[in-house]
Structure formats: structure tokens, C-alpha cells
Please model this.
Amino acid sequence: MSVLTQGAQYVFRYARSKFDSFQAFGELGEKGTSHLPHSVVTPLATYSPWKTDAEFQRVFNLVRGSTLVDIFRCYELWSLVAEASKLPSGDILEVGVWRGGTGCLMASQAKRSGLGCAVHLCDTFEGVVKVGGKDRHYHGGEHADTSKARVEALAGEMGLEHVTLHQGIFPEQTGPELESCTFRLCHIDVDVYQSCMDIFDWVWPRLVSGGIAVFDDYGFLSTGGVTRGVNERRLKRDCLMLHNLNGHAVFVKT
Ligand SMILES: C[S@@+](CC[C@H](N)C(=O)[O-])C[C@H]1O[C@@H](n2cnc3c(N)ncnc32)[C@H](O)[C@@H]1O
Model:
């Protein structure tokens, strides 16, 4: 495969990972990049353990048709669940499930890591909510092409008995169902500023020490509201924040 073809495929994979990234890439192309802290990121590192991790590949193949998230971020979620299994307690939470791909991937790794904890998957199953002025590429209602039953079916096919689904706006509608839980890991994949801030502020006091909150949408032009929210919250003193060049922002509670 030529270098050019590889490069084009790489860009295409990233572009597919967010519903309107083509529009965002178009914006970069039209105006140039000098006014924005954005470009297509192509690290020079070569270590790619997801290629030879047979169990990850098996599970990723089961969920890849049910996720918008690329293999790089999926592998990081897979790895973060393994890291979080070193913590003594806490459930796993995902807000922003869509068709269940990343949630079932994490639940599968939790089962494999011997974690007996619950994996809570929370979504409106009616699309994105709380769009505001900081979310230039969203209107509300995106990603409504799914259902709770569809995710239940995927979890069932994969034998993930410890998954529980919660339908409604998080945290206002479904947070009370999890009021008494603590968490070792939270994946936040909700695309817009206000939702991501509300979820982070709800989960942070419920994370155990060393617990992890990972934002899917930090590194993408199409989800600039989330970038802004993360940059506000990273100023907190009780956290370490790592920007992964795959687009994730990873907070560790100190
Ligand atoms: C990009 S999709 C999630 C993608 C998914 N993680 C995957 O594996 O492809 C974003 C989801 O967030 C949900 N969502 C957005 N804001 C929410 C909120 N405040 N509460 C619950 N769900 C929300 C939407 O319904 C949508 O399904």
C-alpha cells in the first residue's frame, strides 16, 4: 500500500469517528489552520500493541459495527479498564453509549480482568441533548439511530451479564439510579459542552482515589465545546490530566 493511500485511510478513519468531522475538516481546508490549534495529528511512534492483542482484536471485531470510535481510542479504553482493575473498588460508568460499542468493549475487558463490578451504560437513546453556543457543529438529536433494546441485544450476544442500562438524560434523570455507587472509571462520550461538564461534576466526587475519567471528544474540531470544558476542568487541583494524541483527555483523581 502506498504511503499516500495509508495517509488517506488514516484521515478517513478519523473523519468517520465523529458524525460531522467532514464538515470540520472542510473548515480546516477552507480557512487554513493558522487561526486554530488544530491539524490532522500523525504521531511518528510505531508501537501498536492493538495489532497483536488477539483478545482485543476478537472483541473489537464484535463491536466495531456498533461504535463511532476508532481503534486507537477503543484500545485505550480497553487498556484503561485493565489499569482500573488495579484499584480496590468502584463500578464502571459510560455516558454516551449510542449502539453500545465502547460500552460493551469495556464491559468485556472488565469481565476478562476478573472485575466483579457493575458496568453502567447511560444514554438518552434519543440523541444528543443540551446543545449550546459553545457547540458549533451540533443542533441536538444527533445519534438517535439506536435503542436500548439494541444495546441489550449486543450485551446479551457477548455474554455481558454485569451490564446495566439506564435510559434518560444524565445526570438529571438517571443519576439518581446510581446515587449510592462509587466508580473506578468513567467514559464520557456525549459530544457537547454542557452535558460533559454536568457529567464530570457529578462523577468526580464519586470516583475513588486513582479513579479515571476519560473524555472521548477532546481532540476534535467538531466537538470544540468538550475541548473547552476539559480545559476549564483541568485547572482543578485534585487531578492529573493527560492529553492523548488519539483525541482523548484522561483525568486521574489524585
Ligand atoms: C457519539 S455518541 C456515543 C458513541 C459511543 N460511545 C460509541 O461507542 O460509538 C453520543 C451519545 O451521547 C448521548 N448523550 C448525549 N448527551 C447525553 C446526556 N446528557 N445523557 C445521556 N446521554 C447523552 C447521545 O444520545 C448519543 O447516543
